C-alpha cells in the first residue's frame, strides 16, 4: 500500500492552524489535541495518512472523535478514550479496523484519529465527515447519505463504555451520546459507523487532512517571509475575502450549551464605511454585509487575524481586533437538499434559503 | 509616608509618597544582587525625609524572580504532583517545558489518584498510602519543593489540601504550592504556573529575608509589601510563598503609575521607548487582563497578566524613503549619536518628528535635505500606527484619555484619533515606582460552580464572599473592600448546569493592622 504522507511533529503545528481555520469559529482549540498527538508520535513514530482513492474493497474504516465541553477538556484532558472506543467497536462487530477516519476536520477533532492510529499502527484516511466544524454528532456527510450512525461506542478514561447499537436516526444517537458524555464528566471519545472504502469515497469529505495541513503551512510560510497570510490561504483553497475590518462589538450569550451571539465588524480599506455582522452558534453561521446575507452555513465563514492569519475562535473575539473574514464554499455533499436539511440554514433555526457563495 | 520601589533591568527607582503626594524620588543603577540597589534607594529616601515623618510601608515591584527563572538561578529541586488517576495521564506534568529549565529543577513528576469532575464528583478518592510512598520517593530524590495540582481543583480544592497534609506529615520540611491558589481552569497551564512557583519559593524566602534584614539594619521598621501582576499588593510572607505572582508587576505598575500621575482611572497608557511602543488599558485603575495563555520563561501559563499590545516603533526607529518604510530596525539607545538631528547619518522617527515641528530636540538645521512632503507622509504614518495601538487595546469605540509616557512620546501629536484627551504626565520617569506605591490590596476568585446544588445567585454570592475575605486576609481594611468586577462564563457544548465565575475585589491597605 502506498501512503501519501506521514504526519510528523512539525506537520501537527500546521494542522492545528489549518484545522482552526476550518473550525469556522468553533470545534475547540486544537492545542491540547496537538500536544497529545505530538507526545504519541514522539513515542511511536509518524502516523501514516492514506488517500481515500487508495482504500481497498476489503478495508474496514472506523470514524472516531471527541465529544463534550471544550472548557472541561482543558482540565480533564483526554487520554486514550478514542482508542478504547475503537476497540469496543471492533469487539462488538467482530471485525478489525484497517484504517481510521476523523469525524470533523475543524478544531480539536481534526487530530483525534491520530491518537488511536498511533497506538494501533493503523493509517488515518485523508478525509472526514464535515469538511469543517459542526456541533452535533448527526451532522456528518456519512449519515446524510445513508450510513447508519450506529453502532457507536462512547468511552471515558475510567474503563466505562456505552454502546449504542440501534437508533431511529442520527439525532437520537446525538441525544443518547450527549447524555452519557455528561455522566462521564463532560469529556469522552467515541467510535462509530464502520464503513467500506466505497462508502468513504462517496460520502466523506475527501482530502481534508491534507487541506488543513496545507492551509497551516501557507500561513506559517507567509509569516516567516513577511508576506500576506490571507493571500497565501486563498492560493491553497478557493475562497474569497468577504470583509476586512475591525471588531466593533461582540454580543455573546450561552444558552442550552450553545455559545450564541454575533460580532459586528467595521470595514477598513476597500470595505470602509461598510459593516459586516457574523452570527454564531459555537460556529459562525451567517455573514451579513449591511444586513444583506453574503455567506451562510454550510459555507464556511472563517474569522482570522488580518496580520498573522491566526484563526480566531468565537470565545476569543474582542473589540479592536483587526480581522479578515474569509468565505469558503461548503463541500458539495452539503449543498444537496439532503445535506441542507441536516446542516443548512434551517437546521440552525434560520428561515432563509441557502444560496451558493459566489467566488467572483 | 510610604516608599514605592521598582527594580527594572537598568535602573532601580524609588519614590517617597505622603498619601497621594510625591515627596521625593531617586534613581540608582540596578545592582547584580538587586538587594543592595534597593537598600541604597531606601537609605537615600529615609535620610532625606522630613524629621518628624514616619515610614509606614515599603512597596516593592521587582524582577528578582523572573530573572531567577530566566537565568535558571537558585531554583529549588522541585516535583510536580498531579492528582488525576485514572484520568489526564497522556500529557504528564512539565510536558511542554524547555528542557534546560526542566533539567535545572530536576524534572520530577508524579501522578496519583484523586481529582474531581467539572460538577464536583470525585474522579477517584485520595489514596493515602500511595501519597506517602510518593512523598518518601521525592525525599529520596532530593526534592525540596512540590506543586500539587488536582484535576478541577478550581471547583473543589479539598484533594489538593489533603494531599498537602499527607506529604507534610511524611516530610515536614517539604515546601508546598497548591495549584488552586495559583491559577484558573486549564490543568496544564495552572500546573505549570504552580510549578514555576514551587521552584521559586526558596529564592523568594531568601530574598524577602535579605531585604527585611537590610531594612532593619538601615533602621527602617516599616512592613514590606510586594507588587503583584494584577496591580495589588501582598505581604512579604505571602510573597515568600507565592513569588510567581510578582513576575509581571513591572508593566502593571508602569501603567497604573502613569495614569495616577495624570489623574485618570480609565485610560489607554502608551509607552513609547527607543525601539517599541507598548499599549495597555486601565479599567477603573487596573490593567485589562490578557485572555490568552501567557508565556513565562518559555512555559505556557494562565496567570492573571496585564494585556499589552506592542509594535516595533520608537524614537530610534529607522525610516527609509522611496518607498516609505518605518522600522522595524532601530538605532535604540544610540539615537543621540546616530540620529540626524544629533549629527549622525541615520534617518530616524525622531528626525521625522523634528522635521515636522512635532518634536523639538537636537538641531533642526541638520534636516534641510529632507523633502517636506515625504516628512509629512512619514509623520502621518507614525501617528496612525500609534493610534492603532491605542485602538487595539481599548475595550470599546468610546473615546478615552490617552496617557503618553516614555522618551519616544515626542513623536506623537496631541490631536489623537479616538482620544478624549491626550495627557503627558510629569515625573513619568518614576511611574513604575509610583505604581508600586499607590497599590491597593485585592482578592480574586475564579471557580466553576455546579448549578445542580445551588442557584446562580447563591454561586455568585459565594464567589463574592470569598473574594472579599481574600482581600481582607491579604491586609485590606475590611470597611474599604469593594467588588471590582464580576464575570460569568457559562460552559459551551453542555446544557447549562455549570457556571464559571470570576470575581475581583479590592480595598485600601490597612497599615494599622501591620507589624
Query: Can you tell me the CATH architecture of the largest domain in chain A?
Result: 3-Layer(aba) Sandwich
Radius of gyration of chain B from CA coordinates: 25 Å
CATH topology of one domain in chain B: Rossmann fold
Q: Helical content of chain A, roughly? A: 25-40%
Tally the helices of chain A: 11
Q: Name the biggest interface.
A: A-B, 41 and 41 residues
Cα end-to-end separation of chain A = 41 Å
Distance between the termini of chain B: 16 Å
Q: How many beta-strand segments of chain A?
A: 16
Shape of chain A: globular
CATH homologous superfamily designation of the largest domain in chain A = CV3147-like domain
DSSP strand count of chain B: 23
CATH topology of the largest domain in chain A: CV3147-like fold
- CATH architectural name of one domain in chain B: 3-Layer(aba) Sandwich
Q: What Rg of chain A is obtained from the alpha carbons, in whole angstroms?
A: 19 Å
Mean pLDDT of chain B: 90
Amino acid at each position: 500500500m502506498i501512503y501519501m504522507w506521514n504526519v510528523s511533529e512539525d506537520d501537527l503545528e500546521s494542522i492545528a492552524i489549518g484545522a482552526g481555520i476550518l473550525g469556522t469559529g468553533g470545534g475547540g482549540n486544537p492545542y491540547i489535541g496537538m500536544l497529545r498527538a505530538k507526545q504519541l508520535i514522539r513515542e511511536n513514530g509518524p502516523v501514516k495518512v492514506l488517500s481515500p482513492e487508495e482504500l481497498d474493497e476489503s478495508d474496514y474504516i472506523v470514524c472516531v472523535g471527541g465529544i463534550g465541553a471544550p472548557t472541561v477538556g482543558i482540565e480533564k484532558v483526554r487520554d486514550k478514550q478514542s482508542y478504547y472506543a475503537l476497540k469496543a467497536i471492533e469487539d462488538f462487530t467482530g471485525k478489525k479496523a484497517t484504517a481510521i477516519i476523523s469525524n470533523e476536520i475543524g478544531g480539536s477533532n481534526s487530530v483525534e484519529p491520530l491518537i488511536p492510529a498511533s497506538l494501533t499502527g493503523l493509517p488515518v484516511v485523508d478525509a472526514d465527515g464535515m469538511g469543517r466544524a459542526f456541533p452535533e454528532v448527526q451532522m456528518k456527510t456519512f449519515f446524510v447519505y445513508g450510513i447508519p450512525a450506529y453502532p457507536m461506542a462512547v468511552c471515558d478514561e475510567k474503563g466505562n463504555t456505552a454502546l449504542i447499537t440501534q437508533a431511529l436516526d442520527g439525532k437520537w444517537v446525538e441525544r443518547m451520546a450527549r447524555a452519557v458524555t455528561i455522566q462521564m464528566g463532560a469529556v469522552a471519545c467515541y467510535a462509530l459507523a464502520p464503513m467500506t472504502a466505497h462508502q468513504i469515497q462517496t460520502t466523506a469529505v475527501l482530502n481534508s487532512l491534507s487541506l488543513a495541513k496545507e492551509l497551516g503551512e501557507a500561513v506559517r510560510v507567509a509569516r516567516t517571509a513577511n508576506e500576506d497570510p490571507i493571500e497565501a490561504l486563498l492560493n491553497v483553497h478557493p475562497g474569497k475575502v468577504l470583509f476586512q475590518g475591525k471588531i466593533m462589538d461582540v454580543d455573546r450569550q450561552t444558552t442550552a450549551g450553545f455559545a450564541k451571539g454575533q460580532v459586528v465588524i467595521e470595514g477598513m480599506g476597500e470595505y470602509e464605511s461598510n459593516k459586516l455582522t457574523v452570527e454564531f452558534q459555537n460556529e459562525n453561521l451567517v455573514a451579513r454585509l449591511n444586513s444583506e446575507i453574503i455567506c451562510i452555513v454550510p459555507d464556511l465563514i472563517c474569522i482570522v487575524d488580518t496580520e498573522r492569519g491566526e484563526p480566531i475562535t468565537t470565545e476569543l473575539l474582542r473589540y479592536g481586533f483587526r480581522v479578515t473574514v474569509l468565505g469558503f464554499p461548503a463541500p458539495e455533499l452539503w449543498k444537496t437538499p439532503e445535506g441542507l436539511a441536516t446542516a443548512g440554514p434551517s437546521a440552525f433555526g434560520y428561515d432563509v434559503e441557502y444560496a451558493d457563495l459566489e467566488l467572483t | 509616608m510610604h516608599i514605592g520601589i521598582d527594580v527594572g533591568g537598568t535602573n532601580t527607582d524609588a519614590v517617597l509618597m505622603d498619601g497621594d503626594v510625591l515627596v521625593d524620588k531617586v534613581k540608582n543603577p540596578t545592582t547584580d544582587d538587586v538587594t543592595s540597589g534597593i537598600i541604597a534607594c531606601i537609605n537615600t529616601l529615609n535620610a532625606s525625609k522630613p524629621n518628624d515623618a514616619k515610614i509606614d510601608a515599603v512597596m516593592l515591584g521587582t524582577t528578582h524572580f523572573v530573572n531567577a527563572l530566566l537565568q535558571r538561578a537558585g531554583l529549588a529541586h522541585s516535583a510536580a504532583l498531579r492528582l488525576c488517576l485514572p484520568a489526564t495521564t497522556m500529557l504528564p506534568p512539565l510536558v511542554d517545558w524547555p528542557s534546560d529549565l526542566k533539567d535545572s529543577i530536576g524534572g520530577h513528576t508524579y501522578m496519583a489518584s484523586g481529582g474531581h469532575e467539572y460538577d464536583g464528583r470525585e474522579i477517584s478518592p485520595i489514596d493515602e498510602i500511595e501519597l506517602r510512598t510518593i512523598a518518601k520517593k521525592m525525599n529520596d530524590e532530593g526534592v525540596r519543593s512540590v506543586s500539587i495540582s488536582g484535576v478541577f481543583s478550581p471547583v473543589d480544592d479539598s484533594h489538593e489540601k489533603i494531599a498537602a497534609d499527607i506529604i507534610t506529615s511524611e516530610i515536614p520540611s517539604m515546601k508546598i504550592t497548591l495549584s488552586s491558589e495559583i491559577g484558573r481552569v486549564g490543568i496544564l497551564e495552572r500546573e505549570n504556573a504552580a510549578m514555576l512557583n514551587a521552584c521559586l519559593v526558596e529564592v523568594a524566602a531568601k530574598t524577602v529575608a535579605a531585604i527585611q534584614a537590610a531594612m532593619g539594619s538601615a533602621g527602617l521598621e516599616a512592613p514590606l509589601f510586594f507588587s503583584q501582576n494584577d496591580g495589588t499588593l501582598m505581604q512579604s510572607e505571602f510573597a515568600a510563598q507565592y513569588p510567581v505572582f510578582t513576575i509581571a508587576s513591572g508593566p502593571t505598575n508602569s501603567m497604573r503609575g502613569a495614569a495616577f500621575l495624570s489623574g485618570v482611572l480609565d485610560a489607554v497608557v502608551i509607552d513609547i521607548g527607543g525601539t517599541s511602543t507598548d499599549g495597555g488599558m486601565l479599567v477603573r485603575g487596573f490593567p485589562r487582563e490578557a485572555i490568552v495563555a501567557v508565556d513565562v520563561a518559555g512555559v505556557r501559563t494562565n496567570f492573571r497578566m496585564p494585556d499589552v499590545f506592542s509594535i516595533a516603533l520608537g524614537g530610534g526607529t529607522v525610516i527609509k524613503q522611496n518607498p516609505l518604510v518605518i522600522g522595524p530596525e532601530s538605532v535604540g539607545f544610540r539615537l543621540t549619536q546616530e540620529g540626524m538631528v544629533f549629527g549622525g547619518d541615520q534617518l530616524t522617527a525622531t528626525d521625522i518628528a523634528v522635521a515636522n515641528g512635532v518634536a523639538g530636540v537636537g538641531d533642526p538645521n541638520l534636516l534641510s535635505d529632507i523633502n517636506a512632503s515625504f516628512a509629512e507622509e512619514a509623520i502621518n504614518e507614525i501617528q496612525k500606527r500609534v493610534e492603532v495601538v491605542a485602538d487595539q487595546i481599548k475595550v470599546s469605540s468610546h473615546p478615552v484619555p490617552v496617557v503618553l509616557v516614555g522618551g519616544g512620546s515626542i513623536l506623537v501629536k496631541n490631536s489623537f484619533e479616538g482620544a478624549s484627551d491626550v495627557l503627558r504626565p510629569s515625573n513619568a520617569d518614576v511611574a513604575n515606582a509610583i505604581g508600586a506605591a499607590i497599590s491597593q490590596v485585592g482578592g480574586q476568585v475564579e471557580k466553576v460552580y455546579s448549578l445542580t446544588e445551588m442557584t446562580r445567585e447563591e454561586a455568585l454570592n459565594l464567589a463574592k464572599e470569598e473574594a472579599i475575605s481574600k482581600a481582607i486576609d491579604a491586609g485590606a481594611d475590611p470597611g474599604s473592600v469593594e467588588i471590582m468586577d464580576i464575570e460569568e462564563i457559562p460552559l459551551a457544548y453542555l446544557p447549562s448546569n455549570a457556571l464559571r465565575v470570576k470575581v475581583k475585589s479590592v480595598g485600601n491597605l490597612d497599615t494599622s493592622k501591620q507589624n
